[in-house]
Amino acid sequence: MARMRRHPADAPRQPEVVLHIGSGKTGTSGIQGFLARRREALLRAGVLYPEAMGAARHLHLSQSVRPDEHLLRSLVWRRGSYADPSSYRQQHREALDREVAAARPERILFSDEGLYSLGPEPLARLRTLLDAYAGARTVLVYLRPQDEHLVSRYQQSVKTGLTERLADFAEGDHAHLYDYEHRLAQWAAAMDPARIVVRRFQPAAFVGGSPLTDFLDATGLDLDPGPAAHRRQNDSLDAESVELLRLLNLDAVEHSDERPGSIDNRALVDVLLQRPRGAVLTLPEATMERFAARWADGNAAVARRYLGTDTLFAPADRSSRTTTTEQRLSPDRADALLDGLAVPSERRARVRAIAEREAGPPGGRR
């Protein structure tokens, strides 16, 4: 497996910059939490995991190179208290400058799955930003089978305000994320010269049996993962909980002028994760297979270029999962689930009405 080179003792004055770009839903939260907790140990080893771009995930790195209109719609902006996009960028860039000057590291390690989907112009701005620090650049990306990733990403999107059903979501244009060959070519062109390390996000491919130990191997970081190696992050909600969140999102969009994709459901998700878990929402097997087939040629090209093989992913094994393809929640079940959430009575009535509408005959559903 590809592994990042380590600096020799006579390392250049400018540090190597390592960009862990995700992609999303590939164990990034667990990796980022571990790196944040081990920040001091990393620094003793000459590796800076900066706080300026985020305490754990470096979400300010990707946001700072995106256009103003994207930044102003983001949850990052809504949760902060910034005067304008320019001051937002300046604040985080100056804080990063101070950290780098104080640490004088051999390597600077960034981790932000938001980087993965950057287009050409944001990538060019990222390159300019990194050129101020980097003597060399390495990009580490984890790739997951596209059909599995789609279902996982749908759930994550509902957590932040998506109102579509999974079947409709799957019909969208996903090439900007799932054409891995094109995506990596954009990164290679923008960051040249850079080393791109590709790893598979499949349990059978993990060094040490976990995403974290595989990440430590890929980056050459000499840290003991301990219990964190097998700690689960971002646990999946069951189908009922996902559908309840979608109904709550519809209510927020229809009655509170919220934007899909910009709703903070973290408190609700934390409560829903505590309830007994039922079947997980997925797509019919034939739909999953058709979706996966769309990317087969590009996947083979990625495997040949970056891994020296003809196959990027092992065949999927879904036999151990309890799943359902039905995305429907009766009004009575919606009431029962809402009993455990701090939802005002007025809103509960609206959500029940939406549940009645959405659970109706297919022709009457939105």
Write the layout of secondary structure elements.
Blueprint: E1 16-20, H1 28-37, H2 39-44, E2 47-48, H3 59-65, H4 68-73, H5 75-79, H6 85-103, E3 107-111, H7 120-131, E4 136-143, H8 146-159, H9 166-170, H10 175-178, H11 180-191, E5 195-200, H12 211-219, H13 239-255, H14 266-272, E6 280-281, H15 285-293, H16 296-307, E7 323-324, H17 331-338, H18 345-358
Parallel strand pairs: 1-3, 1-4, 2-3, 4-5, 6-7
What does this structure look like?
The protein is about 50% helix and about 10% strand.
Q: Would you list the SSEs in sequence order as H and E?
A: EHHEHHHHEHEHHHHEHHHEHHEHH
Shape: globular
Which bin fits the share of residues in helices? 40-55%
Strand order of the largest sheet: 2-3-1-4-5
| End-to-end C-alpha gap | 47 Å
Biggest sheet statistics? 5 strands, parallel
Note the beta-strand portion: 5-15%
Number of strands: 7
Spatial extent as radius of gyration = 22 Å
SS element count, helices: 18
